[in-house]
Specification:
Layout: E1 2-5, H1 10-20, E2 23-26, E3 28-31, E4 37-40, E5 49-53, H2 59-74, E6 79-84, H3 103-111, E7 117-121, E8 137-140, H4 143-150, E9 157-160, H5 166-176, E10 179-182, E11 184-187, E12 193-196, E13 206-214, H6 218-229, E14 234-242, H7 248-253, E15 258-262, E16 270-272, H8 275-281
Parallel strand pairs: 1-2, 1-5, 5-6, 6-7, 7-8, 9-10, 9-13, 13-14, 14-15, 15-16
Antiparallel strand pairs: 3-4, 11-12
Helix pairs in contact: 1-8, 4-5
Bound molecules: ribose-5-phosphate.
Amino acid sequence: MMVLGGSSSRLLAQDLAHVLGLEYVQAQTKRFPDGEGYVRIDREALEKEVVLVQNTYPDSNLVELLLLLDAARGLGADKITCVIPYFGYARQDRRFNPGEALSAKVMLRHLEMEMDRLLTIDLHKPDVLEWFARAPAKDLKAAPAIGGYFARHGIDLVLGPDKGAAQRAEEVAKVIGCESDHLEKTRLSGTEVKISPSHVGARDKTVLIVDDIISTGGTIVAATNELKRLGARKVYAACTHGLFTGGAVERLQGTCDMIVSTNTLESEVSKISVAKVVAAEL
Ligand code: R5P
């Protein structure tokens, strides 16, 4: 077995190879002047079993993943496990309005034709993997890695910013050994949300908010402001997938006492590696 990395999540791919004690091969990738992608694996041949690590976000990485699958097959890989650390389009898991595409299904139905096994991490709704039917697929949880990172940060309470994030908060809290709860979130627009208090009080507590995705940062900023209003001593925030659009990191650093993400997407705050979580499954 060997680990093959595309141009996204390189640090995670390298870390994974290191944890597993496997050879790491970095694919060469570039863009032609017209914007089309190009990949090359500079080897005579690959091992029969290959672990390919590549995101499907943004769209250019999805194309790169398809090209890498073909390049790996061309060099003799006959069992390819794909690790897609951040699976783009997962949030469009139903037709919210008539006439919309069922994006998550479209992506999974196309990808299942090319892969022998799929591993994802903290999908927005893991049930979407039912659309990946031709090969084994599993969604892994980053909670042990996030909990491990915060184990010695004096956390009193872990909160999910909405009901859907309650289970994740509970899993992280279990690793840390503290209580958990969730806030109530009402989305007002793409960038604005209203957050209501949790049942468990926050006064004088060091609180960790855990979400699957941070995009604009609107959810975490609103949650942090509410928790500070309720008297929280410190508010830390962590997510699995840090998309951090439109200056979100700066905004969050100006609001929370700490902001970190896992390395499914690389950024200046992607300090938690999920390599051990993936390695354990492999
Ligand atoms: C939505 O349900 C997700 O779990 C996240 O809470 C959401 O994507 C965060 O978005 P933003 O950072 O833009 O508030």
